Amino acid sequence: MTEPTIICPDCKNEIKLTDSLAAPLLESTRREYEQRIREKDGDIAKQEASIREREESVAKAKATIDEQITAKLQQERTKIAAEEAKKAKLVMATDLDQKAKEIADLHEVLKQRDLKLADAQKAQAELVKKQRELDDAKRELELTIETRVQSGLGLAREQAKKEAEDALRLKVTEKEQTITAMQKQIEELKRKAEQGSQQLQGEVQELELEALLTTKFPFDQILPVPKGEHGGDVVHRVVTPIGQPCGTILWESKRTKNWSDSWLVKLREDQRAAKAEIAVIVSQTLPKNVDTFESIDGVWVTHPKSALPVAMALRQMLMEVASARQASEGQQTKMELVYQYLMGPRFRQRVQAIVEGFSTMHEDLHKERKVIMKQWAKREEQIDRVMQATVGMYGDLQGIAGKTLQEIEGLELKALDGPDGDIKEPGGN
Question: For the whole model, what pTM was predicted?
Fold first, then answer.
């Protein structure tokens, strides 16, 4: 037996109504049709009872007519016998003319009797005809009732189908409006996220820089400069593992689209105020002819991806200078040599080699992160698509079956709206 199916108005796929899904609807329709059939059977029974009463009345009338005819014939026969006896007595006293007249009268009586008999037969034929007409009318009535019952069932089916289609259409329209509103809200949220303020972006980069330095150099003192105060963004006091101070690095974080030379002047002033040995600007946008890092007018300028190698090199430089200062206190010549080494090309080449190694590792890590994020985004999109299709199918079936379809946890409408009106994904916390 072929299972009943429904066709999805969106994807045009046929969905089988299994026993668990279609049983409540079929049971309700069956009970309704059985009730109508019982009512029709009651009407037919009443009509059959009426027809039987009519048949009984016709049979009684027929029996009465037969009895009347029999009684009449008996009376006529008795009367005729009496008359014949009387006439027989009179025959002997009358002449042949009287006998002829009596015979003529007798013929007239017989003629009347034949007429009455013909009328009785005609009445009987009429009764038979009426009986046949009653039978035909009964069969026609049964056929009419059956036709009307079938027509009523068809109309009921069409009405139920129309109501289900109307309800489904409303559900689909409501779902489309909900999806449209959710898409608009998602687009608005994306736009707001993409239009994040430069100040917030800068603060994020400052926090990342502070966290990077704190994690990499746990013995050093990483002090963020409070907002609204002059003196850079982070003060980095270099300390050896035994607690000996070696110097200070003042960090300034910038996250803008254009480079400004005024940053160098301001940071030098902040460097003098903070009494820091080294000043570093970490910027997404670098000056012309600078790829990764460079020392410009006594200020180190570096890209965020090179910040850690530069910090390690500068910190090591401060520790070596402090160690040399401590080991050869008063030896100005060695200090000058160390200073020349730090300002010379060899130191820059070594730091650049370190930075290039870290940059390569950072780029590889960034590429791996992009690939993983792409896979995550693809899987999330697939999961969202499957969830939307599942919710749509559940809504379609609920529009058809109504309250008889059991609720599924995670797909009910209350899962779409949070307590504050925020839209949540189905199954989300």
Answer: 0.35
